[in-house]
Amino acid sequence: MLAGIVGERVTMKAPRYLTCSFAALLGLTGQAAAADLLAPEQTEFTTESGWEFAFAPYVWAAGLDGDIAQFGLPAVEVDLSFTDILKHFDIGFMGAGEARYGRLAFLTDLLYVKLSADDEVEARRVKADISLTTEVLTILGTAEYRLIDAEGGTLDALAGARVWWVKTDLDFSGNFIDASGSDSATWVDPIIGVRGRLNLGPEFFLTSWAMIGGFGVSSELTWDLMGALGYQASDSVSLIAGYRGLSVDYEDDGFVFDVVQQGPILGAVIRF
């Protein structure tokens, strides 16, 4: 019965809240290969063991447009700004890490976001309060090999996978019905790509990455492109400001994420 009521509201508020919530998830996280923020390092910063470690907190102010669907509803077209997304934000964590030894490196990114929305819905004689809560967890793991390590810059090749888990809880409480439902999906995308750095001088540099994945294994296709200007504040700290675009096309049994995210990105890389 819940599915019937929600389906009847396709052009009303419930689908719009689904749209905003999932857009917020993707816009704030997006399959965010945040390990990409770890701009290839070229300073002589190593530990006694020869290993280098780094942590990169970041913020990505991305908007979103595309198509999404859950709870058996038809796909809904979305077009949201980052400001729209923030209205539904509850809690989140974003952080990337890198461990490097010579030309070989291992990158990881852990991201968790929780969003919620509440309002009233009205369909025919049914009036109800609707509560929507969405959670997403993404974990990226890649291995990387340095192809070029020169005074003017570096170039790395990478390969790995990204795991996605998305869950949404929907609750109705009204004059004729109290009902709840849950929909979720988990998938893994293989990822390959390159990451590079071009030194502009002692302190400034350009950094970028290009990734592609999915290949029909889980999502049909996913890509991730970034370009940024970096500032080497010290041997152990650098700052990055740039622009990023990310796309994913996932669909399985009525669960749809077919979206493009893009917006400015800010990050700091701390090496120890």
Description:
With 272 residues, this protein is mainly β. The chain has one domain (2-271): Lipocalin (Beta Barrel). It is built from three helices and 13 strands. The protein has helices at 2-8, 13-28, 82-86, and strands spanning 51-56, 58-60, 63-69, 76-80, 89-101, 104-123, 126-150, 153-174, 178-199, 204-213, 221-232, 237-252, 255-271. A ten-stranded antiparallel beta barrel has the order 1-5-6-7-8-9-10-11-12-13.
Key phrases:
about 270 residues, mainly beta, Lipocalin, 3 helices, about 10% helix, about 65% strand, disordered N terminus
Distance between the termini: 56 Å
Counted beta strands: 13
CATH topology description: Lipocalin
Helical content, roughly? 10-25%
| The first-level CATH class name | Mainly Beta
DSSP strand content: over 45%
The topology string of helices and strands comes to: HHEEEEHEEEEEEEEE
CATH architecture descriptor name: Beta Barrel
Ranges where pLDDT stays below 50 over 5 or more residues in a row are 1-36
C-alpha-based Rg, rounded = 21 Å
- Please work out how many helical segments DSSP would assign: 3
Structural class: mainly beta
Oligomer: single chain
